[in-house]
Predict the structure.
Amino acid sequence: MTETTRKVLQVGEILRVEIEKVAHGGHFIARYEGAVIFVRHAIPGEVVEVEITGLEKSFARADVFAVIEPGPSRVQPPCQYTGTCGGCDFQHIEISRQRELKSDVIAEQFARIAKMDVEIEVEEVSTPLHWRTRFAASTNSNGQIGFKGARSNAVIPIASCPVLIPEIDFSTLPHDYLSPNQRVEVALDTDGNRSVAVLDQRTDRKAERAEAKIIEGDNSLNYAVRDFNYQVSQSSFWQSNISAPQALVEAVLRFAEFKSGDHLLDLYGGVGLFAGAALPLIGPGGRVDIVEGSSSATADARVNFNGAANVYIHTGDVAREIKKFSRANVIVLDPPRTGAGKPVIEKVAQLNARAIIYVACDPAALARDTTYLNEAGYHLEDIRSFDLFPMTHHIESIALYTPRKVS
């Protein structure tokens, strides 16, 4: 069917379709009389009825209305809020099949964007439930706490969430301190201490972050990884999966093969997770430079590396700060979801590191930046992926790039 004769869909319309494959972002692809539909809560191979929920220029959005022919990996979701809460979009899929689908997404993104064939197994890191040690929730206009719905600002009141560590589940929070239209940030550390902070929701996304008020615990918590202790303030980033820091550190160390005297450039380095693991390996003759845009994170890093004469901490935009450096033996970069981007990648490649290790939470951004590294003379040596966010479509990957040999 040509573009001009493609079926015109309507929001609210119910259609029967067969699900073709998984797509990036937690959706699944179906087609109906030439129209492409991105469906939530489906599984490849299933026959389902879908309800059209939105229309874009070249595709429609839909959610499963009824399952006509379920796939063998469809299971009963462990959470009563599945389908309304916007957090977990894979709870209807058996856990090993979830990881297979995530592998498919990585392969598809690299094939489409980087023009590379990548076969990868997404590795199990934690239990499917009760893995999350940090989360942000919201209160609605009535002061009820919960998570927002998919593609919505509407807060779904939630009594209990099965992916949270039980010690920070909703029922344990100090509800008497909550007010309408707040953001609530909760964290649990290695020692079982927790922090609960609230701040007013900002309608203007460009406005500066409001000051958080700690209503339980301290402003900072402590986390131990490989015998190194990290202070992490309430507003600083730390991985939410209880097993993630250890898994990521071990993978980075394996790829880096640090040597005594190495210079590590730790870009988007946060509170210093990877720097802390590298420090004993590079020794007093080595050097670490941490570059991070968050002043909260670099303040934590200064506490974490207090007394380490060979660790230097730089607060500022990575694209600007990286111009200060002319060389490095190993570069680790852990950018936000949008990726590092071409200007940063080009400068990274000019530093002639023997290894560039890229920690990515978005396979599309990783595939795009892989093309930039390839153009700059670095090839993808190895890649691993980790299921740090079970029950969701999110994936964490670590890729190793080494200088391409000139024949």
